[in-house]
Amino acid sequence: MAPSPRRSGAxxxxxxxxxxxxxxNILGLFFTAIDWISGGRSPIEFYAPSDALINPVPDPLQPxxxxxxxxxxxxxxADPTPAQATLEVIAGxxxxxxxxxxxxxxxxxxxxxxxxxxxFTVSTADQIRRLGIVILAAGxxxxxxxxxASYALYRSVFPSSSYLGPGTAEVSYLWLPLGLAVLAFAAVxxxxxxxxxxxxxxx
Length: 203
Prior knowledge:
Elements lengths: L10 H27 L6 E6 H5 L17 E6 L4 H10 L2 H23 L5 H36 L17 H28 L1
Antiparallel strand pairs: 1-2
Helix pairs in contact: 1-4, 3-5, 4-5, 5-6
């Protein structure tokens, strides 16, 4: 049985927001592709830790209590190769955009299903569980690929540097608590379905 418009009022704005998110991610990917194909990402810029550029080899006699200066410099490549331009796009969050697009599409499907029928079903719990798994897998993979691309871009410009870090790429762990929360919610929905089935049998 489909929920009444009054009861489903909170889901409709959510579906609209997810639709907007999907559209914005698609537009972002489209303009990124156009910019990359047309060569508009030249010159490219990326951040690199200044200590890796000035003194890439650590001083073994440096006191343990010496404070670490967390600053960076902007490296500009005036005539990047196609590989460097591609790495810059990936390091800038391309894979993350694709991941969030997939997540938004799956979330919108769940909300749409809840609007059309009873949301408290095992099928809905399975859909939410799959969403949680996708968030964990896609989010973690996007973070790793972004860091790897950032480091590869840095090494392409400074191949002789002994620095082993990923430039100044910031790894986001938002996907981890979000994915775990979605999995927990899926478990709650599945448990609620089991309790309701038991109650129906008693009645």
